[in-house]
Amino acid sequence: MAQGDKLRRSSKMLQDTVEILSKGDENGNHMPIRFSLPSGLEILGLPTENFYGGEWDLGPTWNYVVLTESPFLVDTGKHGLGKALLNMMDSVGFSAEALDSILISHGHEDHDGGLFEMAQRTGAKVKAHVIYDRLIRHYPELAPPDRRKKFPASCWRCFMPESYTVAYCRDYQRERSQLKIETIGDTDLEMGNAARVYHVPGHSPDSLALLLGDEVLIVGDTVLPGITPVPSREAFFSDLKRVLEPDYISAQYLYGLTAYIRSLKKLRAIGEKFPDLLVLPAHRLFYDGRWNDLNLAARLDELIQHHILRCGHILEILKPGPKTAREIAKEHFEERLLKGFGMLLAENEIISHCELLNASGDVDLTGDSRFIATGSTNFESTIQSLEPETSAASRQS
After folding, report:
1. C-alpha span between 115 and 137 (Å, rounded)
2. Do residues 129 and 206 lie in contact, with contact meaning Cβ atoms separated by under 8 Å?
3. Which of 19, 42, 14, 41 is nearest to 32 (CA)?
4. What are the φ/ψ torsions at residue 260 (nearest 5 degrees)?
5. Which residues have a Cβ under 8 Å from the Cβ of 101 and sit 6 or more positions away?
6. Looking at domain 306-385, which of 1.25.40, 1.10.10, 1.20.1300, 1.10.760 is its CATH number?
7. Please, are residues 195 and 316 in contact by the beta-carbon 8 Å criterion?
8. Tell me, what's the pLDDT at 150?
9. Which segments of the chain have a pLDDT < 50?
10. Of 42, 172, 261, 385, which one's alpha carbon is 20 to 30 angstroms from that of 99?
11. What is the model's pLDDT at position 330?
């Protein structure tokens, strides 16, 4: 099917608001776009390449320039792509020097990798959650003995092999640790005219979503079309609590599947209040030759149900006896997704679900790091009973 034919399958919402400024490939790479909203607000969508190899292809990272009286940029793409992002802005007639600020949706390298270069070149203020500011700093005196003391706190529990972090992350981590951050706390924050920021931890403890009036919600990686964001793990909090205390004292409100589902429910309330929102994700906005319009409430229900089904399948896998996260991953995921670093991502996903299953009393952890089913199935009622939180600060464990 030709690309033009696929484009005609686009949703009405996107068709009504989007203009392709330059043709790209079938996954949206090199395809800057402009959204024109009924209120007169305009947003530039600027995709930067984001392929690490293997089957876990997210498509490009979509970075957004919100053209208010004080224009600001949301996210900056992978490390080394700051110049490419600047060139893309220039190609669509926007001067990067006009940026008032840069907002980071969360501290993952495909979102803030270009931040240092963008901040240096434009002089724009950098805004991010207060947890982002704490985790990009170095605390060698607080790092656990077996962790990466020469890296910032965000790297202490990274599940990628050290060979990878040394090869790809050293300059990135060194650069962003020098940044001055205007921090955003947990209380919803007004940012410019009719713009409000929400803290939505779970995928990352510092994740933010941005609501623009009653028209647009920029969601970072918290909600994606077609794929499910990977939750973080509650265990990460154990090494980081001395960096985050006294403001943050509970893992389940920052990390893991429990925190993530709370955030989904928080966003769902926004979707119910504003059913016609244009939802702009950081990946898969355009993929495989078509637009992916998101009905926020419906997509959030799908994501919550997905995690309920995954927990149920993990318990089925554990029925014959205890298994490691890797053994569970091999039974749960398609083989093609387990190649290379895919296995590490899959293990992380399984562990995040087993943490919730453990909290609900459905799974125990053996002394040899295997998970064993207890025979109960409380997980669904546990997930359904979780309430959205307005603040993750000062929550008791």
Report:
1. 15
2. yes
3. 19
4. -65, -45
5. 70, 72, 73, 124, 125, 126, 127, 182
6. 1.10.10
7. no
8. 80
9. 1-11, 396-397
10. 172
11. 97
